[in-house]
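Escalation from tier 1.

The customer reports that the assembly of two entities below gives different structure tokens on two consecutive runs. Tier 1 could not reproduce it. I'm attaching the input and our single run for tier 2 to review.
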Amino acid sequence: MKYIEFTKRFVGTALLWFFFGLFGLILSVLVFPILYLINRTDTGRQHAARRLIARAFSAFMWSGCRMGVFSVHVTGLKYKDTEGAQLILANHPTLIDVVLLLSLLPQVDCVIKEAVWKNLFMRSSVTTANYISNREPERLLDACVTRLESGSSLLLFPEGTRTTAGQGLHFKLGAAEVAIRARAPILPIVIDCTPKFLARGEPWYSIPLMRPHFEVRILPAVPVEQLISSGLSKRGARNQLNDALASLFESELS
Amino acid sequence: MYSRIKNILVEQFDVDESAVSLQVNLYDELQLDSIDAIDLLVQLKAMTGKKISPEVFKEVRTIGDVLDALAKL
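Tier 1 run:
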């Protein structure tokens, strides 16, 4: 029985990646350029592009669930603030976390690594959607803070990259620094994927023996001041906040 | 140039003036972290008009290294 299930999932996964590539190509070559022409303003284009990306990603997640490649359960969507800007922080266990999160949070800003901007198939979508590039570290922090201050929610992964399979969370200081400078409330999103799927250190084509389940818990928003003591130096504050965030996620994932 | 960098470290990065020297390790001994490193890059660019690339700056450990990196630009 298990072999049948595994084989079905194997085929389902292969199909999912195939269609991801195919539709990605069609969107990139055909749909985004049309979208660019239809919308006259940059904000209009950005809004339409992000909505399209969110819909495409939703379709991907839905297909994945439907074909039994993975299962997903989300709680806490009510904590997402539709009015104000929140700094959305999530851990990063798998390759498809961005797909999952952007399907849930359509218009948020996020940082996309430079490799994607250089990729011929993905370039037009991320450019039209006006995401942030990580090309220049000194500009990155400012860009993140500016976007938050302008009223747009921002998604960041404090780890900066995927969690390495088998190792604990390694939160870097960037997200904490953005939180302190922008003083936007933090919306923690805990992604618990079991068994491990598409993790760093494992080949992308490796399929776990059991169907992976994504338990996505959106926690209530918390203001920065609640997580750190006052009167700390800049360095002290970001280190304390970073540690507090790491502890929060670690306890949620244990 | 050295004294200007020293001033930045003392005034902006909470560094003790007596701890600063050409060879002191910015990270291990002066306790600068990764965000401080980026801030320092930004300050150096504002001060000198020169931009040290992140790859080069990754190798920098002391003020002496900073001065060398700036001289090469």
